[in-house]
Amino acid sequence: TPTLLWFRQDLRLQDNPALHAALARGGPVIPVYVWEESCESPAAEGARANDGWAAQPGAASRWWLHHSLEALDAAVRERGGRLILRRGDPLAELQEIVRATGAKGVYWNRRYEPAARARDARVQTELAAAGLDVKTFNSALLNEPETILNKQGGPFQVFSAYWRHCLTLPVAAPRKLPAGPIPAPERWPRSLDVAALELRPRVAWDRGLAQAWTPGEASAAKRMTRFVAGAIDRYDEERDFPGCDGTSMLSAALHWGEISPRQLWAAVRGRSRESGVFPPSNGARIFLAELGWREFAYHLLWHFPHTIEQPLRRAFARFSWAEDPEGRRLRAWQRGQTGYPIVDAGMRQLWQTGWMHNRVRMIVASFLVKHLRLSWPHGATWFWDTLVDADLANNTLGWQWSAGCGADAAPYFRIFAPVLQGRKFDSDGVYVRRWVPELARLPDRFLHAPWTATAQTLAAAGVRLGENYPRPVVDHAAARAEALAAFRQLREPP
Ligand code: FAD
Description:
The chain has helices at 17-25, 59-78, 90-101, 114-129, 159-166, 207-212, 217-229, 235-238, 251-255, 261-271, 282-303, 328-334, 341-353, 358-371, 376-386, 392-403, 418-425, 430-435, 444-447, 455-460, 476-491; strands at residues 3-7, 29-35, 84-87, 105-109, 133-137. The protein is globular. It has a five-stranded parallel sheet, sandwiched between helices. 46% of the residues are buried. It is mostly helical. α7 runs parallel beside α10 (261-271). It contains 21 helices and five strands. It is an enzyme of class 4 (lyase). Belongs to the DNA photolyase family. It catalyses: cyclobutadipyrimidine (in DNA) = 2 pyrimidine residues (in DNA).
């Protein structure tokens, strides 16, 4: 009898435990993806729907999903199968496919976001009550959140202790899909075309994304191989410099499960085969710890689900945010028109490619929360809509870290100075010149603070402040002082 394999954020065939188990069960395997608008977005997680949280998954994520589903369908077809696509309520769709095919098993890999967990629990209960063989697996994490507890039996809230603990645990080897076809049923249930899921934008703004990315398992595997064979050993030195390709750029592939952390771990381990030293370099050690931050983010989301919309550190709920009645500050930030070149470069990279370098994510996030004093959910929702790697766990951790209100966060009083950050991490200006071309001809020493250049220098570089590039939307020193004052208020009893 057939087994339904319910794909979700595990869009790959290799190292896919649910697929392995479905094959091992014997009989035909029917791969299914159900597009359900409501369950994937923060709005559905109970977050505020009125101040910008998209009612649906972000537009850039949907673009990625469209192409990843196409790639998955092609890979399944190469093995004689087919990906059945549906839209609507997953339980109803799965039940209908069960009826149509006589399937007796439904297998899937687990998700950890609060709304998805609640939904999955309901689906599992209903299907099991109908007598089906329902099994779920871990495909996305090295360690699932509930399995890692501190000595007191509670969740970790400090990364270093969390990761030290994780490093004592074994990492399972990834499993290779056996060669040969995926057994097909006698008749396939009906399926939609990928286009019918309407994941692609109606207005074609996605050219930059298409130029930057090739979603899908095969492309992720290539990216991993290239990175682990090269840049990983320089990761400790290069990962903070947005002008060089020093990071893996695998975040979207990890989010959608086109590649698993176990596969990455094994690839790094493979590099140690000759030397016997693991990790094979300091770069590799730090890279693995970044995967650890991803694990930590899921750990926090699982144990503190309210952090999607509320600060983990409750005192921050009283923080006095700036007024921005016409949304002028927020728009300047979103559009990369703040007048601070490193901030603008990051926001434009995000808009055009759906991705931003981690160092610059920290800079723009700090700028929004501390210089503009706009609350972090404004930033989280914008990221949610524009990132191809938008991920509820990582995004929440990243924003709460930047705002100083999360677990193991940067202290609020440490305020990134955008000019100094630019000079330090983009000293030759490669990054800013690429994304803010109107400043490209400015000499390096003025590039990160164009307003400090003389009128003559600006004219020679074709920069007209206030016309083709904005003056700073806030003054750094004044904004810093105001942010610190707001923070001090927080520490005084209400
Ligand atoms: P690499 O440096 O190659 O790291 C490898 C992988 O480790 C990444 O793909 C990612 O899965 C994980 N990772 C790396 N750094 C972090 C981190 N700080 N926290 C959690 N996981 C990490 N990452 C997302 O995947 N989705 C998000 O929505 C997201 N939002 C963020 C928001 C803010 C404000 C900040 C400061 C960071 C955010 N990050 C997010 C984390 C990080 O910026 C990205 O994971 C990273 O830039 C992706 O590039 P990469 O794949 O080249 O990373």
